[in-house]
Design brief:
Elements lengths: L2 H31 L1 E8 L2 E2 L10 E5 L4 E4 L11 E5 L2 E5 L11 E5 L4 E4 L12 E5 L2 E5 L12 E5 L4 E4 L11 E3 L6 E4 L14 E5 L4 E2 L16 E4 L3 E5 L2 E2 L2 E2 L2 E6 L5 E6 L8 E5 L2 E8 L3 E9 L4 E5 L6 E2 L2 E8 L3
Antiparallel strand pairs: 1-3, 1-28, 2-27, 3-4, 5-6, 6-7, 7-8, 9-10, 10-11, 11-12, 13-14, 14-15, 15-16, 17-18, 18-21, 19-20, 21-22, 23-24, 24-25, 25-26
């Protein structure tokens, strides 16, 4: 290596290190002063029947409890999933009155427009887990066009704009949740592996995105209560799971997996048992919107993480179930 090349390499390394320091400082300052956040709700059935178009899209104002309609999705979707990748919201999979979807609709918040991604998943699915890790979208399990649980998994690479099948899970999981607890793993929690009352997981499967392998010797303990079609949010204290169903029983229980002692503990009950709802976390609170509990619901709740109590919120304008929610944050420092 020539002296000039060596100096150039040292300079690049120095600049990269300074960039990391600046990004760390900006991230900390943004944490202190806050960030702008918009809550989006996509898909699902509205009203009391299942003949709706299911391509609804809304913005939700958490402070004022108000709803604003947005341009509708190109594709009707129920039990789909939404993730934020590079500032674009990808609404994936789901089903409608005609078929289960393998497509992805992409919403651009800055332009308020929709496009449909050309690349399709290898397998149509709904009621699956989805997470973003290292600028890639991972999907896990779900159900196929005949509502049969799946063990298959896929990853989407935005650089090549292609989906690739991964090693399947050890067990099928329909109605599971996927969450990123740290920069090393993805947890796939709960879900059904059949349609019987006892065919519901309480276990947690652990995926390593770096090696693209499943951790067979995972030490993550099972939840206290098996559940599917539930809510799951990651907080500073741990992973909170809530409501859902076990067989034909709607659940209201809430548990938290503590990062500190690595155990699950129950922390109370939602005010209304339900499944098929939308949920999100924002400003130290967890929100539930709508869902299903023998009937479609318009009711909403909020878990105050500070005192671990569920509080009722004003109802939504109309009953809604099978929808998905996502929070998109915009840094106050540009």
């Amino acid at each position: 290596m020539s002296a000039l090349t060596e100096v150039g390499a040292q300079l690049m390394a120095y600049l990269e290190e300074k960039k990391k320091i600046v990004n760390t400082v900006l991230g900390y300052v943004n944490h202190l002063v806050g960030s702008k956040a918009t809550v989006y709700i996509f898909g699902g059935y509205e009203g009391v029947n299942e003949s709706g178009e299911a391509n609804y899209a809304h913005k939700y104002n958490v402070d004022r409890y108000t709803w604003n309609a947005m341009p509708r999705m190109p594709t009707p979707r129920v039990h789909c999933r939404a993730v934020n990748l590079d500032g674009l919201i990808h609404v994936i999979g789901g089903f409608n009155n005609i078929e289960t979807c393998d497509t992805v609709d992409v919403f651009n918040p800055s332009k308020n427009t929709w496009t449909t991604e050309a690349s399709r998943m290898n397998e149509a699915r709904h009621s699956f887990g989805a997470a973003v890790f290292n600028r890639k979208i991972f999907v896990f399990g779900g159900a196929d066009g005949r509502h049969r649980p799946l063990a298959t998994c896929e990853v989407y690479n935005p650089e090549t704009r292609t989906w690739k099948l991964l090693k399947p899970m050890a067990s099928k999981r329909m109605g599971c949740c996927a969450i990123v607890p740290d920069q090393k793993r993805i947890f796939v929690i709960g879900g059904q592996f059949g349609h019987g009352l006892k065919e519901v997981h309480e276990s947690v499967a652990v995926f390593n995105p770096s090696s693209m392998e499943w951790e067979n010797d995972s030490k993550i303990p099972p939840m206290n209560i098996p559940r599917s079609d539930f809510g799951c949010e990651c907080t500073a204290e741990g992973i909170v799971v809530f409501a859902g169903e076990k067989g034909n029983k709607y659940l209201s229980s809430t548990e938290i997996y503590s990062f500190l002692d690595q155990k699950w503990r129950e922390i109370g009950e939602c005010n209304r048992p339900r499944n098929s709802f939308g949920s999100f976390s924002l400003n130290g609170n967890i929100y539930i919107l709508g869902g299903y509990s023998a009937e479609r619901l318009a009711t909403s709740e909020c878990l105050k993480l500070k005192d671990l109590k569920w509080l009722n919120l004003p109802d939504m304008p109309i009953e809604r179930s099978g929808h998905t929610c996502i929070v998109c944050r915009e840094s106050v420092l540009q």
